[in-house]
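Many groups now describe folds with learned vocabularies. In that spirit, our science desk offers one protein's residues alongside their backbone shape tokens.
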Amino acid sequence: MIAQKKKRDFVETFKLSEGGIVGVWDLITKALSVISVLEVIILIYKKIIGYQWEDYKPLIDELKAEMKKHPNSTEKEILSKKKEHYKLYSRMSALYKFINLWVSCHVFLAAGMSLILFYLITSDNHFAIYSISIYGIWRVFEIIIKQVRIILFDTIGKHRIYIKSPRRSIILLIHNIVEMIFWFACIFMSACFLDSSIITDGSMHLSDLFRWSDFIRCSTLQFTIFGDSYTPLSGLLTNQSTLVNIAFWEILAGLIIILISLARFVSLLPQVSDQILEE
């Protein structure tokens, strides 16, 4: 019976929410999201606490109604009076806090790796170069897949997710954008290390030729305005095919994250009320 239940849960997890091309891409992105460590942790945690959308949605609806009746009360104060709801809500709140910590720590990790790669690593240390760049590529891919799923697929079907608030989602997304800019800077650095026409001596550091801010600015411009004609690296981008390919993928990532994800969450923010003062 236990084996059958596990099999049924596994099949249910990958069950298509819709048919046609939407269902196909739902399945593809769902399969790709398995490589995400954070996604796996979230799935395991939800299984442990017995999270089901059908159980959680009435709780949220009731909470919203109570918050309207008692605008000066906090979520915790309202739910503390309902013991049957408070346990599940507190466990989900712990998950949200873990996600916040995960995202914040990875921003500092990406920034730290870019500094280490720029100032401490030499071009003959291939293990460190490949390790940092591969992890950076994996993190960028993980973020993009997660954002695509949140925007297009995770809001439908039985296993839909509940977004705690649009404001929180935007703040986390901005953290993701900063992290991706740092990881792409690391990838640019790795490509320069592995190009013998740029680094001619195996004992050289990138700091001997460039400034750390050059890579950060180049990565920021590629991600946000989809081009760089201002930094010293702009000349290399026109001559080195590897750097051109990296720039292409960063521009594509920027299009997905900024034009789709960020625009979507900004549209969900509550309107700012204005007050016209009449004399």
